[in-house]
Structure formats: C-alpha cells, structure tokens
C-alpha cells in the first residue's frame, strides 16, 4: 500500500470516527456503521466514490427525498446498485438517507496530487489511426446522453440509426464538447470525472478526476486545452487536451479572498480565451489561451451582483447575465463592465439562449424557468422586441439556420409532454408536438441540414423521436434509456446560432 493510499484510509477512518463521535445520541452512529457495512465498498469508505458514484450532499442535491428513499430500498435497475430493504429496517434506511445528506465531519479534500493520481491514459496521443472505423459521415454524428443507465448512443445523422453505444461516468452534465475536427469529445460528470473519447475509433482515450463535483468543461478552439469548472472544491482545473494531464489548478476566490464555486466555464473562441462564471462572488474570470507550458492568468471582471445564468453573443463581445433576484445586465467584455440593464422577468434560462436574424437584426431568446413566456431581445440596443406566451416554464430552446422555427419545451410545467414551435419572424406559436401524452419531452437538436428535429422523450423507456422540421410529422423513434441532451457534431463545431456551444 502506497503512502498516499495509506493516508486516504486513515482520513476515511478518521471521518467515520468523527461522524460517530460528533453525533452521539442520534441515529447517525448507526447510519455511519450501516454505510461502512453496506455502501463503503462501492461508494468509497470516504464517500468520494469508487465503483459507484460519490455520496456527498453535493452529489445528491438533484435527487428528491422520495427518489433517494426508493433507491436505498429497491436499488437502481440496469446498474449494480442493489436495494437494502431486506437487510435494513425502515428506521435504519431513513437514518442512512439523512446521514448521506449530511456533510462529512472532515471536509473532503481533492488537490492537484489527487487529480494527478486519478489520471488514466488508455491510448496515448497518436497511437490510434486517424480514420473512422465506420462508414457514416463523421461530421453528422449525434451523441445522445442517456441518463438512465449512464450511456451515450452514437447516431448516424443521415440514416438516423444508432451505430454505437458506450458506458459513461455517473451523471454527465453540460454539453459534451468536440474537438474542431469532430474526432474527440470531452465530457464532464457531476462526480468530477473528465473523459476524452475518440469518436473515430469508438474508444476512450483518457480520463482524469478533476474534482469531487464538477459543473462542466470547455475546450479551447485551438484544440490544446480543456478547462473544468468545479463546485467541490471551488476550483478550475486546466488540462492538456491531448492526454488530459493536469497543467494547473486555480483556487477560485474573489478579490476579498472569499472562496467560490464555479457556475460554468465557456470557450470564447473569437476572443481566444476561456470565460468562467463564478457562483458565490460577483466576478467573471477570463483566461486567455496560453502557449503550451505557459499557464493562463485570469483577468477579473468585477460585477455589481452575482450572476446565476449567462448568455454570450456569437462574437463573445457581450455577456447577458441574470442575477438570482431576477435583475438582468449586459456586460461589455472589452470594457470589462456592465453597459446596460436588461429587461427580464421570472427566471430566464439564459444558458439555453439562441440567436437568429429577424427583420435584418440579430435577436436572442431564452426559455424561462419560472414563467410560460419567452422574451425576444434585440442584440444591438437590448430592447425587448416581443414576448411569446407558451404552455409553461421550460428548460431548452433550439433552432437551426435552415429552419423557420424555434422549438421550446414546457418541462417545468404540467404540459411537460408538449413542445411548441414558434415562427422566428412573426413570433407566433404555429404548431406543437406531443410525442407521448403525459410523458416528459424536451431538448431538441437538428440534423446538420436542419431538415429533421430530434426530440428527447426523457423516460427510462424513452426514445429519440425524429420529426420532419417543416411538416412537424413524426418520422421515426429510436428507443433510449432516459435520453437527456443530444449533440450534433457539425452544428456544434460550426457554432450554429440555433444551439448551445
Ligand atoms: Fe443543466 C447545461 C446549469 C440542472 C441538463 N446546465 C447546463 C449548463 C449550465 C447548467 C451552466 C451549460 C454548461 C455546458 O453546456 O457546458 N443545470 C444547471 C443548473 O444550474 C441546474 C438548474 C441545477 C444543477 O443542479 O446543476 C441544472 N441540467 C439540470 C438538470 O436537472 C438537467 C435537466 C438534467 C441533468 O442531467 O442534470 C440538466 N444542463 C442539462 C443539459 C445541458 C445542461 C442537457 C446541456 C444543454 C445543451 O444542449 O448544451
């Protein structure tokens, strides 16, 4: 056993001991014992994950209490997670659920040495042939993230058929990011794993655990760098894109030293920089790409307010941001300051914003997480040119240069089974599709020619439902296990204005 492994075991034992000691007189000691008896082998004695995902409060944030209770009792289908209803009584299971949502007495630690120790290179750069092993057009592939059992399906975008399916790390989040030639795709899991997958050879190239909890990754358009934005700990991890080796960890703190989680990282290709949005301090960081071996120093833009959600114009000259109290602002990247306020209401989900040209002017729209309305904003003078009433609050908005329509969902409302189709010029709802009544449908992506729209039926026995983007008629269904997002190589690498980047 190496000194590092020994230290980890001692820390894990100390954590169990501390949680036993700190909670004497409650059910926590029993829960800690149950954890080490039943969970530790797969999820790590330190709760940081192993064969199973990390079980820290941050990792469980998105699981509703009823869902956690169900998983503890009955396990998860199509995974190795068993249920414990036969071994533990109700009180013990409830106690375990509470304990899992409580932060460990000793804060989990993940530094540069931990990151480097997690690094695996499956195929060294240049080791595999630079030629696809399949006949489909590699620029018109779709990647579909199936959250049910943590897989990605690779679809041929011309024949609309699955050509491959592979297992991913637990709970990918954020869009996978492609290299410019479309050969490699970089993915981040909520548990902090960054994976590089070789799409031409259909195999993983490298992986590294950049943090214990991660938001997303961005890839520089020169193909050299990957930046991971993390929430536990609050860091940015800069990786070399060729083998994912760690270059540098930035401890994220405001000017007053206050630590911050990272909301998200973006590649601002036209500016040759990364942009990191911070969650706990009113700052945005810009990190110019450096040459190999030269770490990038952040340029700090100080804001009036912490921004919760962001949209960048196509040239990355402006950031449109919304704060938690619903205030909107436009920040000029060159001047490094707010230039105007933005008229917003409800909670616009600017991260899912898109742009198109209307009456010769560029306009932008985003779904709203709290209201059934979409505001359309002029990108030159920032005034609201129109508001579209929809079925209810939604999460994603999508279009394509070669379609006259914008598609929106209402997945945060009782009408979560229906997507509405809005005319880009008249701003009127002109149609709708309901793939399966009563079942959640959201997230659209178009084929590279804009002819077909692929919709996710986000259920365990779900599907990708393909629609003719002109007639709105269903063309086919491809069964999937809770498909969430889907990503077309061409639309992403050419930065189509109808999709996210
Ligand atoms: Fe996401 C992208 C933030 C919850 C599915 N989500 C993003 C991005 C951000 C973000 C900042 C852009 C990063 C990128 O693309 O690299 N998401 C948040 C949240 O703050 C929120 C509300 C709470 C949280 O716990 O993080 C949240 N997101 C969710 C979900 O519950 C979703 C529906 C299911 C899930 O898997 O977590 C979800 N988010 C997505 C998807 C994208 C995404 C599918 C990529 C969209 C795209 O098409 O590019």
Tell me what the structure shows.
With 501 residues, this protein is mainly β. Among the domains are: 3-100, Orthogonal Bundle (Cytochrome Bc1 Complex, Chain D, domain 2), CATH 1.10.760; 349-360 and 370-501, Methylamine Dehydrogenase, Chain H (7 Propeller), CATH 2.130.10.10. It has helices spanning 3-22, 28-43, 57-60, 65-74, 90-100, 112-118, 489-493, and strands at residues 120-121, 141-146, 151-156, 161-167, 177-178, 184-188, 193-198, 203-209, 213-219, 225-232, 235-240, 246-251, 262-268, 273-278, 283-288, 299-302, 307-312, 318-323, 328-332, 337-342, 354-358, 361-366, 373-378, 384-389, 397-398, 405-408, 419-423, 429-433, 441-446, 452-457, 462-468, 474-480, 483-488. The strands form eight sheets. Strands 1-8-7-6-5 form a five-stranded antiparallel sheet. Strands 4-3-2-33 form a four-stranded antiparallel sheet. Strand 3 (151-156) and strand 4 form a beta hairpin. Helix 1 (3-22) packs antiparallel against helix 2 (28-43) and helix 2 packs across helix 5 (90-100). The radius of gyration is 23 Å and the shape is globular. It starts with a helix and ends in an 8-residue tail after the last helix.
């Amino acid at each position: 056993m190496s000194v590092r492994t020994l230290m980890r075991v001692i820390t894990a034992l100390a954590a169990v001991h501390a949680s036993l000691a700190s909670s004497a007189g409650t059910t926590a000691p029993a829960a800690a014992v149950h954890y080490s008896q039943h969970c530790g082998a797969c999820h790590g004695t330190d709760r940081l994950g192993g064969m199973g995902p990390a079980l820290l409060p941050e990792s469980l944030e998105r699981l509703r209490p009823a869902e956690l209770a169900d998983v503890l009792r009955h396990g998860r289908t199509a995974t190795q997670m068993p249920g414990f209803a036969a071994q533990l009584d109700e009180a013990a299971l409830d106690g375990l659920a509470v304990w899992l949502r409580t932060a460990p007495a000793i804060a989990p630690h993940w530094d540069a040495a931990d990151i480097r120790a997690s690094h695996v290179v499956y195929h060294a750069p240049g080791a595999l042939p630079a030629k696809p092993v399949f006949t489909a057009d590699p620029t018109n592939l779709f990647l579909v993230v199936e959250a049910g059992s943590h897989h990605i399906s690779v679809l041929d975008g011309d024949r609309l058929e699955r050509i491959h399916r592979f297992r991913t790390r637990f709970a990918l989040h954020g869009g996978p990011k492609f290299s410019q030639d479309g050969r490699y795709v970089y993915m981040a899991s909520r548990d902090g794993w960054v994976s590089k997958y070789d799409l031409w050879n259909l195999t993983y190239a490298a992986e590294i655990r950049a943090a214990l909890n991660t938001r997303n990754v961005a890839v520089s358009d020169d193909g050299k760098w990957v930046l991971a934005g993390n929430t536990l700990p609050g860091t940015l991890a800069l990786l070399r894109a060729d083998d994912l080796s760690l270059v540098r960890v930035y401890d994220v703190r405001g000017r007053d030293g206050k630590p911050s989680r990272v909301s998200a990282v973006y590649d601002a290709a036209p500016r040759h920089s990364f942009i990191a949005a911070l969650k706990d301090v009113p700052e945005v960081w810009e990190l110019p790409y450096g040459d190999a071996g030269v770490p990038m120093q952040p340029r700090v833009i100080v804001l009036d307010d912490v921004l919760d959600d962001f949209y960048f114009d196509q040239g990355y000259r402006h950031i449109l941001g919304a704060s938690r109290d619903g205030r909107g602002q436009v920040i000029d990247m060159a001047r490094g300051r707010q230039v105007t306020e933005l008229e917003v209401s409800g909670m616009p989900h600017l991260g899912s914003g898109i742009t198109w040209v209307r009456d010769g002017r560029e306009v932008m729209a985003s779904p709203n997480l709290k209201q059934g309305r979409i505001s359309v904003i002029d990108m030159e003078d920032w005034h609201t040119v129109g508001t579209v009433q929809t079925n209810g609050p939604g999460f994603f908005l999508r279009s394509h240069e070669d379609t006259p329509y914008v598609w929106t969902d209402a997945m945060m409302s009782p009408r979560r089974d229906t997507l509405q189709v809005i005319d880009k010029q008249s701003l009127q709802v002109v149609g709708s599709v309901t793939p399966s009544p009563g079942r959640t449908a959201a997230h659209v992506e178009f084929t590279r020619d804009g002819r077909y729209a692929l919709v996710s039926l986000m259920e365990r026995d779900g599907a990708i439902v393909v629609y003719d983007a002109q007639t709105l008629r269903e063309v086919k269904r491809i069964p999937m296990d809770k498909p969430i997002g889907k990503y077309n190589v061409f639309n992403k690498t050419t930065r189509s204005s109808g999709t996210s980047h």
